[in-house]
Amino acid sequence: MTRKRISLKRLVTNVPALIGLLLVLLAVGSAVFAAHLAPHDPVAAELRLRLDPPGWDPASKAKYLLGADAVGRDMLTRIIYGSRISLMIGIASTAISMVLGVTLGLLSGYFGGWIESIVMRVADVQLAFPFILLALVIMAIFGGGLTKLILILGLTGWVSYARLVRSQVLSVRELDFVQAARSLGAKDLGIIWRHILPNVISSVIVLSTLQVATNILTEAGLTFLGLGVDPSIPSWGGMLADGRNYITNAWWVATFPGFAIMLTVLGVNLLGDWLRDELDPQLRV
After folding, report:
1. Among 89, 42, 91, 34, which Cα is nearest to 231's?
2. What is the pLDDT of residue 91?
3. CA angle 267, 271, 276 (to 5 degrees)
4. CB 149, CB 211: distance < 8 Å
5. Dist CA 5 CA 278 (whole Å)
6. Which CATH class is domain 3-38+71-283?
7. What digits encode the pLDDT tens for the residues 91-123?
């Protein structure tokens, strides 16, 4: 039986991983097919339906399945479109952090010396600041916005990748196959790309899945505080911020976006745990 079939069999028999995969596919499917799945316009307001409760009245098609927000917009539609923003920010910012962190980790771990000293000291300085405080300061100075938020999350999340990759490169570079490649005249960049990177990429993949979940939560938190995505764009964090004033008389405005965030992050984490077990031979049962 091939490795892919074995992995697929483990996934099918692993209930938490299968639930995580289904939750992730649900979020991705909502983001990709939002225009076809959403029953209404996400920004269309209808004040006569302001804070309309969840439900479906066959005699009145104006009723919304998950209720309406403070200006009469369909909550279900906005949650579906909000998945685009959350996944875009989570994936794009993680990709930036991964590329930057893996590159610096490979270079500092392989070459050592002044490269390693500079990279690790910069990482130590950044780790000395609480991340959420650092993000708040940057967003307060330069303003909010989707692109700025992605860049901030991406450029401040590289430290975990750099430290992880560096620690693994320090051991991999001393293995026999790396020494053999070096003795045969292989160039340093070729050794890094062909021999070292494939041996550390599995840990990077696992870390990336968990980082996506973290960035989704961070985006929701910053947007909730008014320093993230523009309020005119449907986002889960923005919907939470809109609903905080209506918790007692319109619970659905904040509850359903909160569930969307919780289920998506749960799905990513469950899938990440399965990937960790699958890619690390020492953790397999």
Report:
1. 42
2. 92
3. 150
4. no
5. 12
6. mainly alpha
7. 999 999 999 999 999 999 888 888 888 999 988
Give the integer Cα–Cα distance in Å for 81 and 43: 10
Closest CA to 272 of 9, 30, 21: 21
- Residue ranges with strand state E in the chain: none
Name the residue among 39, 97, 31 with its Cα closest to residue 64: 39
Extents of the domains making up the chain: 3-38+71-283
Summarised one tens digit per residue, pLDDT across range 221-248 is 888 877 778 877 888 888 888 888 888 8
- Confidence at residue 113, expressed as pLDDT on a 0 to 100 scale: 84
How high is the pLDDT of residue 104?
93
- Amino acid 247: pLDDT: 85
The CA distance from 66 to 56, in Å, is 9
Alpha carbon distance 135, 140 (integer Å): 8
Question: Could you tell me if 80 and 30 are in contact, meaning their C-beta atoms sit under 8 angstroms apart?
Answer: yes
Place of tokens 């973290």: 214
Classify residue 226 as left (phi > 0), alpha (psi -120 to 50) or beta: left
CB 62 within 8 A of CB 44: no
* pTM given for the model: 0.86
Angle between helices 75-111 and 113-127 (to 10 degrees): 150
C-alpha torsion angle, residues 146, 149, 153, 155 (rounded to 10): 100
Say which DSSP state 74 is in.
Answer: B
Q: Answer yes or no: is pLDDT of 283 > 50.
A: no
